[in-house]
Please model this.
Amino acid sequence: MKVLIAIDQSPFADQILENVLNSHWPKDTSFKVLTVVEPFQWQNSAGESMSPEWKSIALEVFQTRLSNAGQILQNFRQKLEAGIPYCTAHTELLEGKPGDEIIAAAAKFMADKIVVGGHGSAPNRLLGRVPQAVAREASCSVQIVRLKESEQAASQASSQAGQAAKKAGKRGPVAGLSK
Model:
């Protein structure tokens, strides 16, 4: 059996891992753990470009996101292999639109099943746009893990938002992107 597990950089990835570890898998199961980082938009909705200084900052943030995503993937794979020692697990980091990339990666991997979280960064929604797209477009079975916001996840999300706001505040408004 081939299973693609799509995770993001939210604290909810641990809940997806817990769900996978608590499921029964055949001995020949091969997992591909995937995360997709959306590329940074260099223009605002009016088509105005960022200043060179802000492009530099944005590129630095994007590179950090890629690095963090790679580390999250490796940690997830190690925990998966430790929890299901008779499986094989590989990782893949892609850039693009998450829904499209997950579907394409599942087709390329010839996945029998895709496991994806239910809402990602918007826990108050019934079902996020990525799992909706995956469920609608995938050519294999899709398991949507209903995620629960824990105090730890809420605290981490709040802390990340605060750090991003603090970093942005030190640099001033974005040229060409303010109201």
